Structure formats: C-alpha cells, structure tokens
UniProtKB/TrEMBL annotation:
<feature type="binding site">
    <location>
        <position position="183"/>
    </location>
    <ligand>
        <name>substrate</name>
    </ligand>
</feature>
<feature type="binding site">
    <location>
        <position position="111"/>
    </location>
    <ligand>
        <name>Fe cation</name>
    </ligand>
</feature>
<keyword id="KW-0479">Metal-binding</keyword>
<keyword id="KW-0819">tRNA processing</keyword>
<feature type="binding site">
    <location>
        <position position="179"/>
    </location>
    <ligand>
        <name>substrate</name>
    </ligand>
</feature>
<keyword id="KW-0808">Transferase</keyword>
<dbReference type="InterPro" id="IPR043129">
    <property type="entry name" value="ATPase_NBD"/>
</dbReference>
<feature type="binding site">
    <location>
        <position position="273"/>
    </location>
    <ligand>
        <name>substrate</name>
    </ligand>
</feature>
<dbReference type="GO" id="GO:0061711">
    <property type="term" value="F:tRNA N(6)-L-threonylcarbamoyladenine synthase activity"/>
</dbReference>
<dbReference type="InterPro" id="IPR022450">
    <property type="entry name" value="TsaD"/>
</dbReference>
<feature type="binding site">
    <location>
        <begin position="133"/>
        <end position="137"/>
    </location>
    <ligand>
        <name>substrate</name>
    </ligand>
</feature>
<keyword id="KW-0012">Acyltransferase</keyword>
<feature type="binding site">
    <location>
        <position position="166"/>
    </location>
    <ligand>
        <name>substrate</name>
    </ligand>
</feature>
<feature type="domain" description="Gcp-like">
    <location>
        <begin position="24"/>
        <end position="307"/>
    </location>
</feature>
<feature type="binding site">
    <location>
        <position position="115"/>
    </location>
    <ligand>
        <name>Fe cation</name>
    </ligand>
</feature>
<keyword id="KW-0408">Iron</keyword>
<dbReference type="InterPro" id="IPR000905">
    <property type="entry name" value="Gcp-like_dom"/>
</dbReference>
Length: 337
C-alpha cells in the first residue's frame, strides 16, 4: 500500500510517504527545537501551536518529495500516543480529515512501536528480536515477536536516558536538547576521569534508573567553584556518558541472553549516541549477537517509522474510526491488535 504517515507527538512535525511499509519515498521533519530551546524544554502549548502552523506544509512537502499526489495515497497512519495530547491531536485531526475527505482507511499506532520497527525501512530484521527503546521519554526493553506483538521486559523506574542527557547538559549550561552536545564533548574526554555510579547494574532484573547518575553529576559540579570547562568538561561528559552506556549495554545483553534472542535493535533518539553505538556493537560482537541501529534520521522522531506497523495493520483490514482519541500514556504491550 502507499501510505501517508503523520507524527506530532512531541516537538517534531513529521510526514512521510511509504510504500508497502518498507520503502520511504519521503520523510520530512520540521523540528521546533529552536523555539523550545530558550525555555530549556518543550512547552506543550507552544508545541501544539507550532504543529498547527507546520502540518499542512510538511504534508505537502512529503507528497512533493515522493512525487506522489494525494489521489494516489491508499491509507493514513498516525501517531495516536504516547506524547503531549495537544500535540498529538494536531496530527491525529489532520490525518482524520484527510481520511474523511478522500475516503481512505486510517490507523493510529504507538510512537514507540514506530521507533522499534524503524530499522525495517532499511533492512529486513527477522522476528523475534530484542528492542531497546532509548529516547527522551523511554528507556524500555521489549521482546518483539512480530508487528503488534510486544512484551515489556524492563524499563526505567525514573528518568529516561535521553532525559538524563538533557538534564545533565542543562546543568552544565550546554543548552537543550543536550544529548548530541554531550556526545560530541565525550568523544574527546576521558571516560575514566570520574567514577559515576552504575545504578541497578548488579540487580538481577532488567529495570533501569538514571536519576542517580544525574544527581552524582550535579553533586560533582556543586563541589567545584565554577562550572567545568575545557578538558574538565570533556572528561565529565565522557564519564557521564560511559556510566549511562555501560548500564544500557549490560542490561540489554542480559535481556537478550535471558530471552535467547540473537538479534537486538536499538532505537529512539539516544540510539544516535556514538558511544552507545560503539559499546553495544563491541559487546554484541563478543557475545555473537547481531545489533541493528537505524540510521540517525530514523532514530530521531520521524513519520516513516510509523508506516511499518501501519501498513501491516491496514493490509490485514484493521481500521480505526473517526472517534479515535489521542493517548498521553499508553503501554506498548496494549498497543498490539
Ligand atoms: P519518546 O520517543 O520517548 O516519546 P522523544 O520522541 O521526545 O521521546 P526522541 O526524539 O526519540 O525522544 O529522542 C530525543 C532524545 O534523544 C533527547 O533526549 C536527546 O537529547 C537524545 N539524543 C539525541 N541525540 C543524542 C546523542 N547523540 N546522544 C545522546 N542522546 C541523544
Ligand atoms: Mg523531539
Ligand atoms: Fe521519539
């Protein structure tokens, strides 16, 4: 099927045209990050308004770049949740309007379902696999047995890894969002300079906790007379990143071994992190596991990723009605059909 996909769960307005849930003909992303940066985080009311301003242009651009007209589109897929309700409603209402006007089928999917199926747009990753969804709002381990068949194995009990990156960047005065900045600084720092805690590493379960690492960074900074700069800052960034990465890698490998899974997918914004890519790659190679990272564009929020599940559901005859509502929180285990 030729699908139009729309994503607006947070601060990216995104639209894509995808054929057969595998080939992205376009994947357009309008980020609001500059607008929110001055507030140090996403302001929900502003996000909704910016989505409203951007959505028509982004959808038109997605059709244009794919060289497709609306008349050729055979169905719509849209993020139903989780996310900011006001933001989600913009994409959802737009998708409903197009579906109604053109008499097309519509399906709402889970944002994290999009993230963990995203690599299917670049290569066929056979099921089952272990997925680490690591982003601004999630640090979750899932067993993925197929489209719509997800079982949660572990999750963060407090901050998401991306949230920890963002909070640490903020307290170091590095702006928002901070993941990519810390990643760049860490590349030139000594990861062994400061021994930050590795929370829950030795607990025999698959949950995570990142707020303790963040507090340890805060305490370290408070003990100094001024904010770290130069090599001290690079060493701090590298040491913080190493602590987060070590926990992510070890728990993910533990989950794959417990579940007897040969393949691991790492997805979501933090999957862009070069330290995580390198360490996960090395650990998987050592254990004979295959790890797949989507390319950076598909790790971040985008609409094409939604079409993998959307195509599968619509092709099976699943449809959502126009009463479909946005969900601020929505456990992925209950998102299958
Ligand atoms: P969710 O997907 O959980 O709903 P979200 O959509 O806001 O949350 P994403 O857009 O998937 O999150 O990811 C954004 C997060 O990824 C931010 O916290 C950002 O700092 C982080 N991030 C992006 N690039 C990197 C990087 N290179 N290293 C570490 N973190 C990164
Ligand atoms: Mg975002
Ligand atoms: Fe996301």
């Amino acid at each position: 099927m030729l699908l139009l996909a729309i994503e607006s769960s947070c601060d990216e307005t995104a639209a894509a045209v995808v054929r057969d849930g595998r080939h992205a003909l376009s994947n357009v992303i309008a980020s609001q990050v500059d607008v929110h940066a001055r507030y140090g985080g996403v302001v929900p009311e502003i996000a909704s308004r910016k989505h409203l301003e951007a959505i028509s242009v982004v959808v038109e651009e997605a059709l244009e770049r794919a060289s497709v007209t609306l008349a050729e589109i055979e169905g719509l897929v849209v993020t139903r949740g989780p996310g900011l309700v006001g933001a989600l409603l913009v994409g959802l209402s737009f998708a409903k309007a197009v579906a109604m006007a053109r008499n097309l089928p519509l399906v709402g999917v889970h944002h994290i379902e999009g993230h963990i199926l995203a690599p299917q747009l670049e290569q066929a990753v056979p099921f089952p696999y272990l997925a680490l969804a690591v982003s601004g709002g999630h640090t979750h381990l899932y067993r993925v047995d197929g489209v719509g068949r997800y079982r949660i194995l572990g999750r963060t009990l407090d901050d998401a890894a991306g949230e920890a990156f963002d909070k640490v960047a903020k307290l170091l005065g590095l702006g928002y969002p901070g993941g990519a900045v810390i990643d760049r600084l860490a590349a030139e720092g000594n990861p062994k300079a400061i021994d930050f805690p590795r929370p829950m590493l030795h607990k025999h379960q698959l949950d995570f906790s990142f707020s303790g690492i963040k507090t340890a960074v805060l305490n370290h900074v408070r003990a100094q007379s001024e904010l770290p700069a130069g090599q001290d800052l690079r060493d701090l960034a590298a040491s913080f990143q190493a602590a987060v990465v070590e926990v992510l890698v070890k728990k993910t490998l533990r989950a794959a071994e417990e579940q007897n899974l040969e393949r691991i997918v790492v997805a979501g914004g933090v999957a862009c992190n070069s330290g995580l890519r390198q360490a996960m790659g090395a650990a998987c190679a050592a254990k004979g596991k295959t790890v797949v990272f989507p390319s950076p564009l598909l790790c971040a929020d985008n609409a094409a990723m939604l079409a993998v599940a959307g195509d599968s559901y619509l092709s099976a005859g699943e449809r959502d009605g126009f009463a479909l509502n946005a969900l601020a929180s929505w456990p992925l285990d209950r998102a299958g059909r």
